[in-house]
Design goal:
The structure holds 2 protein chains of 2 kinds. By secondary structure, chain A is mainly alpha-helical. Chain A is built from 3 helices and no strands. Chain B is α+β, with helices and mostly antiparallel strands. Chain B is about 45% helix and about 30% strand. Chain B contains 5 helices and 6 strands; from the N terminus they run H-H-E-E-E-H-E-E-E-H-H. Chain B has helices at about 5-10, 15-30, 75-80, 125-155, 155-175, and strands at about 35, 40-55, 60-65, 85-95, 100-105, 110-115. In chain B, strands 1, 2, 3, 4, 5 and 6 form a 6-stranded antiparallel β-sheet that branches. The longest helix of chain B is centred in the C-terminal third of the chain and has 31 residues, at about 125-155. Chain B starts with 5 loop residues before the first helix and ends with a helix. Classes of the chains: A mainly alpha, B alpha+beta. The interface of A and B includes residues 40 and 64 of A.
Chain lengths: ~70, ~180
């Protein structure tokens, strides 16, 4: 609770939707799916770093760009 | 420029998950698999039996590789050179002779997690030990994510890390 994280052990997206709806009805809180940005927020990046992340564009590895 | 709200930031930064998986793959292969994780000391991290690579443009192009060492083969690197990035990798991670095996997705979902063998015998203590091991695993992945994101934001990323990633992908072609 203190982390602000709800861990759910299941990978079916329909079940996630049901859980999110149930969680919101029960606790009045909206669940935000985990992803790189939410993880970055939690692991201690500074606000300036989070702002900078939001300006990045994907790297291009493939040969057309080399 | 309009500042993004949280939902926009989450959607915008989704690609960083695929890049992070590539970073783990690259780091594993270029260090021989053993390196320090900040706060956790030396670990050995190698890719295991499954890797899925995808390119998401108009349609999703997907390469799914399985086998004893799928990341080192020509097909995996060809997929990288075709513009695909990993969306799911299976990792074997060893720290202090304790072994974790798990599949990590680009959205940070963990699947098929095998924790190290438990050392305690009491049922209550075993549960706590399992929770501790799971938290250690998350902590190691978080530390590696911070390392990647700070590297990604560094000016040296464009001049050093990105060229190294491209060399890594091209080396595949000659394997």
């Amino acid at each position: 609770m203190s982390e602000g994280v709800a861990r759910f052990y299941g990978t079916a997206s329909k079940v996630h939707d049901v859980l999110a709806e149930l969680f919101e009805k029960t606790f009045g809180l909206e669940l935000v799916p985990e992803g790189p940005y939410t993880r970055a927020e939690r692991v201690g990046l500074r606000d300036s770093e989070l702002d900078a992340l939001a300006t990045l564009t994907p790297i291009v590895i493939h040969r057309e760009d080399v | 420029m309009k500042k993004m709200d949280l939902a926009e930031r989450i959607a915008h930064c989704a690609f960083l998950g695929r890049e992070f998986l590539l970073y783990l793959w690259w780091k594993s292969e270029t260090t021989g698999g053993t390196f320090d994780v900040p706060g956790f000391g030396e670990v050995t991290l190698v890719l295991e039996a499954n890797i899925v690579l995808e390119r998401k443009v108009d349609v999703v192009e997907r390469t799914r590789l399985t086998g004893p060492d799928p990341s080192s083969g020509r097909t995996a690197k060809e997929a990288l050179r075709h513009g695909e990035l990993p969306t799911r990798i299976t990792i074997r991670l060893v720290r202090d002779e304790r072994e974790y095996v798990f599949t990590l997705s680009d959205d940070f979902t963990l699947r098929s997690v095998k924790l190290p063998a438990l050392l305690t015998e009491e049922e209550d203590e075993r549960l706590l030990e399992r929770i501790g091991l799971a938290r250690d695993l998350e902590g190691m992945l978080d530390a590696l994510l911070v390392e990647y994101l700070r590297a990604r934001l560094s000016p040296a990323f464009r001049t050093e890390t990105l060229p190294a990633l491209r060399r890594f992908a091209s080396e595949v072609a000659h394997a």
